[in-house]
Write a structure and sequence with these properties.
With 69 residues, this protein is α+β, with helices and mostly antiparallel strands. Strands 1-3-2 form a three-stranded antiparallel sheet. 17% of the residues lie in helices and 55% in strands. The chain is elongated, with a radius of gyration of 14 Å. It starts with 5 loop residues before the first strand and ends with a strand. A hairpin with a 2-residue loop joins β2 and β3.
Length: 69
C-alpha cells in the first residue's frame, strides 16, 4: 500500500427536500472541480423555518480528498 496525503475542506450544502439531498448537492458540486474525493463527515445540520414549517435544510460537511503526488 502506498503512502497518501489527504486534504480536508469544509463545504455547506442545502436542499429544500432533505438533509441527504443537501449532502449530495455539496459533494456533486465539489466533484466537478476536485478529484479523488474519498470520504465525508457531517459536522453540523441546521435548517430554515418559514411560517412554522421547514423551508430548507443546510448541512456542513468535511470532505477529504487525496492530493496528487
Amino acid at each position: 500500500m502506498s503512502d497518501h496525503v489527504y486534504k480536508k475542506i469544509q463545504l455547506v450544502g442545502s436542499s429544500k427536500t432533505s438533509i441527504e439531498d443537501a449532502i449530495h448537492n455539496a459533494i456533486n458540486t465539489a466533484a466537478k472541480s476536485l478529484h479523488d474525493l474519498n470520504w465525508f463527515e457531517v459536522v453540523e445540520t441546521r435548517g430554515n423555518i418559514t411560517d412554522g414549517k421547514v423551508d430548507y435544510f443546510q448541512v456542513t460537511i468535511q470532505v477529504g480528498f487525496r492530493l496528487a503526488g
